[in-house]
Amino acid sequence: LTILGIESSCDDTAAALVRLDGGAAAVLASVVHGQTMLHADFGGVVPEIAARAHAEKLDIAVREALARARLTLAGVDAVAVTAGPGLIGGVLSGVMCAKGIAAGAGLPLIGVNHLAGHALTPRLTDAVAFPYLVLLVSGGHCQFLIVRGPEDFARLGGTIDDAPGEAFDKTARLLGLPQPGGPSVEREAATGDTSRLRFPRPLLDRPGCDMSFSGLKTALLRARDQIVAEKFGLTRQDRADLCAGFQAAVCDVLAEKTRRALSLYMAEAPAAPLIAVAGGVAANGPIRAALTDVAAEAGARFLAPPLELCTDNAAMIAYAGAELYAQGHRDDMTLAARPRWPLDSASPAMLGSGK
Ligand code: ATP
Ligand code: FE
Hints:
By secondary structure, this protein is α/β, with parallel strands linked by helices.
C-alpha cells in the first residue's frame, strides 16, 4: 500500500510517499518547503501569504516527492491530505490539490486530522502498540493524548493559552535573539544560571493536566525590564540567565504534568507502556531529558521520533492516511477543509461535509 500525503495547514508546504507493507512502514520520500523567509518581516505567519505560497508550491512538492521515490501516480494507491485544523487558506489549498489528483488519477481520497498525523508518528517510526501516551508540544499546540487507535484519542489536558514553542519564540523576540526562538533560547540557556531568576510554574497548584505558558512571557518581560532599569542594558550573562530561568520553568511544568498524564495512562494497564513526544519543542535537550526521567520513574518507555518527523511534514499525514485506509475509511469530493477540528471529535465525513 503506497500513499501520497499532502500537508499545508501552517507554514510548510509538504508532500510525501509512505509505503505500508504488512505492519512495517517506510518513508519513500518526504519533501518540505518552509516559508520562514516569506513571513520573516511580519513577526508571525501571515495567513494570506501562506495560502498563496501553498497554492504555488503544492504541485511542485508533489512532483518532487514522486520523483525522489521514483514513482508516478500509477504506483500510488490513495491520496491523504490534511483537512484541518489549521489556517483555512492553506488547508483549502491542500484539500483542493488532493481532490484534483484523486479525481484525475482515479484514486481514493482520505482527509486526515493534522493532530492525528502528529499523534500517530510513533507508529510510523517504531513498532508501537496501542494504547500509548503522546505529548504533542509545538509552536501551535500542547496537549496530552492517549492514542487507543487511528481514530480513537482521549485528550487528558493541554495548554489553556499559549503553546510552549510560541513562548520560546516570544522569549527570543523579547531578548533580541534570532527566530525560531526555541533553538536560540536553548543555546543561550546552556551558559545560564537557572537559580538566579525564578519564574512561575503556572497551574502546578491545580489538579489535572492543563497547562498555561502565557504568564511566563509576562514574567520574562518584567524580569528583563528590571535588569535593564538597574544596569541600563542586558549583558550576555543576563540574557543567558533569563533564558535558563525561563527554560527551567517550562521544563518543570512539562515534567510535572507529564507525571500526572502518565499516571492516568498507566491506570489503563497498557501491556507495553510508552510515552512519545511530537512537535518541534521535542527537539529541546533539557525538556527531553526531563521527560526521559519522568517516563523511567513511571516504568514507561520514552520515544522521541527523529526531528524531521516531529515537526510539520507530510509523511505523518500519509502514514495516518494509510492507517485510516486500512480501516476502510474513504472520503469523497465533499471532504471539507476545517479551521478547527478537535481530535476527540468525529471526523468530517461523519459530520457530513464538516458543517
Ligand atoms: P504546529 O503547531 O502546527 O505543529 P509549528 O510550525 O508551530 O506547527 P513545529 O514545526 O512543530 O510547530 O515546531 C516549531 C516550534 O518548535 C517553534 O515554536 C520553535 O521555537 C520550537 N522549537 C524548535 N526547536 C526547539 C528547541 N530546541 N527548544 C524549544 N523549542 C524549540
Ligand atoms: Fe504540526
